[in-house]
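Suppose you are handed only these lines of text.
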Amino acid sequence: MNETKFQERIDAEKKIEPKDWMPDAYRKHLIRQISQHAHSEIIGMQPEGNWITRAPSLRAKMILLAKVQDEAGHGLYLYSACETLGISREELVKQLHDGKAKYSSIFNYPTLSWADMGAIGWLVDGAAIVNQVSLQRTSYGPYSRGMVKICKEESFHQRQGYEIMAEMAKGTPEQKAMAQDALNRFWWPSIMMFGPQDSDSPRTGNAMKWKIKRQTNDALRQDFIDKTVGQAEVIGLTIPDPDLKWNEERGSYDFGEMDWDEFWNVVNGNGPCNKQRLAHHKKAHDEGEWVRNAAKAYAKKQELVAN
Ligand code: 3HC
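From them, the structure of the protein bound to 3-hydroxybutanoyl-coenzyme A can be written out as follows.
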């Protein structure tokens, strides 16, 4: 197999499996994207975990607990898919801790009120659904199959978030104001989840050539905006973009200019919570070392017993 044959396989919509030959650049691109996706799932547990003890009811607490546990599982699937490319979990975590690997910018914003749990479920998981439904058709087999499972759980995440926002929007004036404030703070960071504009996206060219991505950052962003504006209108909340306007000719919403300085600032580690998120992850990882050692010792003992 060589690059020409490999590309023919990709163009013929054949999935690439771990044991198949693949160009080093394809392998590296996938390790990069899948590991950052996995890191995002795990770091993303922090902003929501922040509100588990302060949920307004037992039902709300149970739903949020279930969602945060789901995210841990998504991280597990994605780390496992990434390991099939020949990199260890330890190395992936080290890259995160050394600042060599990224995670989604969205998780570097603080969660200041209960309504933020609604905004995250509705907008962040809503954006994730748009991105991940597309990724179900990615060319790498383990990544594609992991996406199928993850997408099924994301729809629950999005619905529970939208329910929180809908309830608050029809509640007291203070509750509606809290929901609108959460929308104001999470709208633009949520559409930044789709990455830089296609013209500024160094990875999109290869990602599309190798069918790692099936749609570009801008196309997915537009799809999310078109799907979400109506949902805000139905519950009486206002999207914080004065330039948002339906364009009949395009059949899509025109929207305002994004703050790309803010985007790259957060992506490059200088967002409101970057340092806090990484410090928390390192602390939890260090405190969990005894669990990893116990699991390894148990596995070793099982191995000895079996042989
Ligand atoms: N946050 C952090 N980093 C970002 C970013 C963002 N929103 N957007 C882009 N970047 C980084 C890229 O990782 C890349 O960094 P690298 O070269 O060091 O790897 C650089 O900025 C250039 O961006 P590109 O657009 O060229 O890179 P990609 O083509 O990889 O696009 C992406 C970025 C859209 C994040 C793409 O990697 C992707 O679709 N990843 C898979 C989905 C994913 O990771 N989603 C994150 C959200 S997690 C989530 O949804 C959990 C849910 O439960 C809430």
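What can we learn from it? The chain has a mean pLDDT of 97. The radius of gyration is 20 Å.
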